[in-house]
Design a protein that fits this description.
Blueprint lengths: L7 E4 L5 H12 L3 E6 L2 H10 L4 E5 L5 H15 L4 E4 L14 H29 L2 E6 L2 H5 L5 H21 L4 E8 L5 H4 L3 H9 L9 H11 L11 E4 L7
Parallel strand pairs: 1-2, 1-4, 2-3, 4-5, 5-6, 6-7
Helix pairs in contact: 1-9, 3-4, 4-6
Amino acid sequence: METLEEKVALVTGGTGGIGSAICQRLANEGAKIITTYRNEEKANAWKTAQNFDVSIYACDVSSYEECLKLHDTVIQDYDRVDILINNAGITRDSSFKKQTAEKWNAVISTNLDSAFNMSHQFVNGMAERGFGRVINISSINGQKGQFGQTNYSAAKAGLHGFSMALAQETARKGITVNTVSPGYIATEMVMAVPKDVRDRIIDGIPVGRLGKPEEIAALVTFLCTDDASFITGANLAVNGGQHMH
């Protein structure tokens, strides 16, 4: 795989488990890394722990206005963004009966609206330069649904609809737009689940283990290269065979 030397990559939610792995792998391949945060203390601690150069900017990706401000700052500092990874996401789980408008709106705005908010800032610049990569991080639960996650499943399914439509609009501009749908990955959030529950999850995964953040990062990085320039509008599942589709 060729390197991504001198490419500028913006990863939303880069301080989380999957986001960190994506930032690290892209940096290893030579990309300049930018990420966003909402919690400054957590973000600064994360940045200190990394062994690669990364610029972090405050941005609530659910806010179009904040994404617009981020665009202006990033273009001033870096001149362009070649790669956009829409990775930021939250959960607010509850059964539909107990689901509130507040929980619904929080998840839809952070997990789905954010893909529009961020892509709208940077895709035109990619088109002008004749190269771009947009990768939307969805979820197995956007493909199969999940009890207690009507909000999350709807948002994550919506991401792929967004990818397919945007892919068609940008294909002749040198931009690819794809979705990556991880299954259960050994992040801090998943490892915090009680062991008996985690064991039941693993029992349902044909390969017999949780995924690794680095495995998601490897696929995302490949999609950023010229080798993947014929892949667009795809939804790539990385779930150990838990949901085949």
